[in-house]
Amino acid sequence: MELIADILLIGAALAATVYCIVLSRRLRRFTDLEKGVGGAIAMLSGQVDDMTRTLEVAQASAIGSTETLNELTGKAENAARRLELLVAAMHDLPDPESAAGNNRREPPPETAMQPEESEAAEPLFLSKRARLGTAAE
Prior knowledge:
Blueprint: H1 2-31, H2 37-92, H3 96-103, H4 117-121, H5 124-136
């Protein structure tokens, strides 16, 4: 029985030794500056620096765009005010239909203009020529 206990104790010691060797190798790779976590941290630090510079450029661009947008918004508000004044001024003008109705002259009654019998057969645009032709003769 002691022999079996010794064999099991030696097997456990060998398993613990192998396990410690595996952990040691993993820990060495984990802390390696080129391939392990150290390398990952160095790479992430470089990326953070790049992102910080990119963010500063983006912020400067956003500030410039904001200033331009504020300027254009101010111009648009001024134009809107002027348009509102023009529309308000248009409401003060008389309606074109009522203004045209007041300025219209009533045509003379049909009975006042009776064409002569010779002109009645001719078209309207030829009747003036015919009168001019008879006057010249």
